[in-house]
Amino acid sequence: MQPFIKHTGLVAPMDRVNVDTDQMVPKQFLKLQTREGFGRTLFYDWRYLPGEALNPEFPLNFPRYKGASVLLARANFGCGSSREHAPWAILDYGFRSIIAPSYADIFYNNCFKNGILPVTLSDAQVDDLFRRVENQESYRLTVDLENQVITDESGLRIPFEIDPFRRNSLLKGLDDIGLTLEHEPDISAYEKLNPKSAPMYEAVDVKIAAPQT
Amino acid sequence: MAPQTLYEKIWNSHIVREVPGQPSLIYIDRHLIHEGTSPQAFAGLKAAGRKVRRPDLTFAVMDHSVSTKNRLLPVLDADARGQFEALERNCKETGVRLFDMHSRNQGIVHIIGPELGITQPGQTIVCGDSHTSTHGAVGALAFGIGTSEIEHVLATQCLSQAKSKTGLIRFNGKRPKGVTSKDFILTLIGKIGIAGGTGYVFEYAGDAVGALSLEARMTMCNMTIEGGARAGMMAPDETTFKYLEGKPFVPRGKEFQEAVEGWKALASDPGAKYDLVVDIDATKLAPQVTWGTNPGMVTDVTSRVPDPNSFSDPVDKQAAERALVYMDLKAGTPITDIAVDRVFIGSCTNSRIEDLRAAAHVIEGKHVSKHVKQALAVPGSRVVKVQAEKEGLDKIFLDAGFEWRDAGCSMCIGMNDDVLPSGERSASTSNRNFEGRQGKGSRTHLVSPMMAAAAAIEGHFVDIRKWDVNGAE
Ligand code: SF4
Which of B129, B166, B210, B244 sits 20 to 30 Å CA-CA off A85? Predict the structure, then answer.
């Protein structure tokens, strides 16, 4: 996974509460088999008019937000479906960090698995950032995970909290699975003490594929 | 030892590794998989040269994109076909059991897990799907995960998790006729909001919950995620044990008795502490209908579409304004004046046999309104379908003008060709009324199966309590 240490970029506003993951990647794109290429689908039904023409009224399409890489959002961002296609799309579009007052649990978790830093600030701080973005063209923020602070070019400084474990994983771009596999002896010991199985007591119509070799 | 909650008991018995200040490594007893969110996980696993650690604890099914019409015809949608083929290939290569689209036991993943007894009390259960919370109704800790976590569980049979806060939600008193567990959960979400449960695991209790069938409890756990809580659960009781006995993956005879003894000990201890307690008077509840674009935008069938100005919070006001535009509704319209174009009875929320019985009871001897363009009855699994046909429910649906379909997610998400057209309005027994959920531009109203059935007959919402629903539940 791509590490996240510090990122400076143009900020784009997404001024809606409860943006659900169905909006980030609508169902028709859930049939693909890759993790790449979802940037095109981000906020599909809001972003495009019929025929995939850009909807000029949708903020992400405003020329001033072209190339944005920090997404400023509202409360309960990423609610609904667990689809990881949502953070894939956000990343592929070019966003490296999200700033919002709150996130839905599964989405929040999924961001960290993809090298995206979701920063949580208070409502008042987020309100203030929305004002700054609106009032100032080319408004840029630096999101510094190492020092847990957000800064802008005019001297704004907002410290933020983050779980130290998540912070460390993101800073180093750690491979979660690799980390867990280092504890293989613990897993085996647990399995020995707590044998788990799923025997079938009555035949059902399931294909049991060839055992692993 | 301090008194423990059901959640804490399950959590504690699944800790593989615990380090203060870090998430714990938790063992996963059952990993369920469907075609939509798993291909990237298998691909990642393969790319890293890793294996599925416990294929014997992993179960796969095709549900999201399957046709609910004739499944013997070739799959024309190339992307969907690609996912089916990928799932089949991945299962074959790794030894994971697969209920493919032709299996007699195929169905929506959250329907077939409990139905086959794959999911049992005391287990940890995950699936790359937010409605995994459904399985908590048997007394398990069940929650949805993302694709990276699917890969993690495939490789390690574990997940790295931080402990959740616990909420005790009690529904007290006797449930009125015509009010279902769907109305319980919609009422709760309306009360706490769709983010009200963020960071929590909810345990449902109270005599009104105890009196519910296990299937009805599943409806509540299913929609728990719509209130922001990742998991919902109920302590296993006699209703649970009776439901599970004889299921294909549930032990038999003496082994079953032993299992039941263990399951009984799972109930929260008296005096166990919760971070949040909510009490709801079940005797006062009414059938619910959503009017907006998330499940928290909900009201009693007897009320009216709310005026955005009635919300004190400017954020809520703005969201309501937006929702009314999308839904093409005017503030002050009585809910029962809202006409529907299509009716969908199905989804992992409400497509079990009891749901179909309730809907069939409501429509028996009547006919779908001529203003309704389509009414769909989609059983949650093929086992449910066979059972319904044995009881003659298919005939009741067909005679009333419903379409009777094969099992799958169908119009809940519209990934197959069961799509709600743009601008049209549905009465739906599913769980999400997000913009575009049932099809781009579609307008969804979430209701219970009886309410959906009655809306199909009348062409608009009606207060089901005014109908004879004796025997419908
Ligand atoms: S029925 Fe709907 S909510 Fe349930 S698993 Fe299928 S798509 Fe998801």
Answer: B166
